[in-house]
User: Fold this.
Amino acid sequence: MAEPTPGRNEPRLRPAPLLFEPAEAAADPEHFFDLESIDDPRTLLDRATELTQAFRAAADRAMEFQAMAAAQLADPRRFDRLTPADIAERAEWTEDYAKRMVEFGQDLLRGGDAPGHVDPV
Assistant:
């Protein structure tokens, strides 16, 4: 189960860096961040755990940016604003999820987690 996203005023943990995957390595379906070359199971577990945490942190942060973008696109002050249905179609979400992401993004843009605010996922 994923760890809760830290609040706006809490420091973010810095997970292991996601190292660049060269094109030829990425084309090999057996290659994944050089994990296949690690023979020691302890080292493999450590590095795989670091990558798992890094991917979770990256996914959480990317979701926050999605929410902020959705809120900005739905802003009624924009002449080209999008409806939740338009945002849902563009992001491949349901309309209900798009509405929750807009609300989450509005909260983030206002400066953080409001009391009682629930992450949209």
Remarks:
- The chain is about 50% helix and 0% strand.
- Residues 1-5 have pLDDT under 50 and may be disordered.
- The two ends are 13 Å apart (CA to CA).
